[in-house]
From TrEMBL:
It comes from the Bacteria. The lineage of its organism: Bacteria, Bacillati, Actinomycetota, Actinomycetes, Kitasatosporales. It comes from Streptomyces roseolilacinus. One of its GO terms (cellular component) is plasma membrane. Pfam families: ABC_tran. This is ABC transporter ATP-binding protein. Residues 10-242 form the ABC transporter domain. InterPro entries: AAA+_ATPase, ABC_transporter-like_ATP-bd, ABC_transpr_LolD-like, P-loop_NTPase. The keyword Methyltransferase does not apply. GO terms for molecular function: ATP binding; ATP hydrolysis activity; transmembrane transporter activity. Belongs to the ABC transporter superfamily. The keyword ATP-binding applies.
Length: 242
């Protein structure tokens, strides 16, 4: 088992995974540099979510290796992977998945509280991130009293407040209309860059992928070269017009 390259905070080799016998990943390898925003781009059903689940330690691939910060994730016990996800990773899905009994600020502070951050400090951080996501006025409301778009902003604030090493964002703006989605993505990418958070962003939308530093294209569970998602793109050449 060869160790990953030093400059990759996250690294996967030859991932194979099937769901009920049908292939979702067929030999995907990739590396993610520290502080990089990497887009995983491809059409629906090409394996983006399965890849992010494997990278984030939510799914153990049937074959292949995943390494984070020099440690093999694919051989960790379930409890160690759970700890890793809580301490070092954050996840934003297409739906907000908030705890209905908690207010917006309590939801945002939850990962910090679970890590043992004192309540006052966790609340301060949560309120700051809610402000930054333009939902500061919603801090004391429960999810059912919020619009879907406000709930998704709270979910983004929760992920960023945890200041994870790696933020996995799986179609994070799928439930938002395009102008609002673009604004949330700009906030997310700006915050990730200023806090040196590595981001792995799954999207079927080329405009969203263009916000990343680099794009990996998938098709039918394999990496491909795509004309609209060139292999390596510098930040300076990215379109920020969405
Ligand atoms: N739990 C599951 N059970 C059965 N098949 C699944 C399951 N999850 C994913 N699949 C199948 O595996 C393949 C890859 O799915 P995956 O969700 O990883 O792709 P995706 O690119 O994220 O798609 P989408 O954009 O629609 O979420 C698809 O053919 C999908 O139908």
């Amino acid at each position: 088992m060869a160790a990953p390259p030093d400059n990759d905070v996250l690294w996967a080799r030859s991932l194979h995974h099937t769901h009920d016998g049908s292939p979702a990943l067929s030999g995907v390898s990739l590396g993610v540099h520290e502080g990089e925003i990497l887009a995983v781009h491809g059409p629906r059903g090409c394996g983006k979510t399965t890849l992010l689940h494997c990278l984030a330690g939510q799914t153990v691939p049937q074959e292949g290796e995943v390494w984070f910060d020099g440690a093999p994730v694919h051989t960790m016990s379930p409890s160690r992977r759970e700890r890793l996800r809580l301490d070092r990773f954050a996840w934003i899905g297409p739906e907000p998945a908030l705890v209905p009994e908690l207010t917006a600020w309590e939801n945002t502070a939850l990962p910090l509280l679970l890590r043992g951050t004192p309540r006052r400090a966790a609340k301060t951080a949560a309120l700051e991130w809610l402000e930054r996501l333009d939902v500061g006025a919603c801090a004391k409301r429960r999810p059912r009293a919020l619009l879907q778009s406000q709930r998704q902003r709270v979910a983004v604030a929760r992920a960023l407040a945890a200041e994870p090493a790696v933020l996995f964002a799986d179609e994070p703006t799928a439930a938002l209309h395009s102008a609002e989605g673009a604004q949330v993505l700009r906030t997310l990418t700006a915050a990730a860059r200023s806090h040196r958070i590595t981001v792995v962003l799954a999207t079927h939308d080329a405009d969203v992928a263009a916000l990343a530093d680099r794009t990996v294209a998938l098709f039918d569970g394999r990496r491909v070269n795509s004309p609209d998602t060139p292999g390596v793109e510098g930040r300076d050449t990215c379109s920020l017009s969405v």
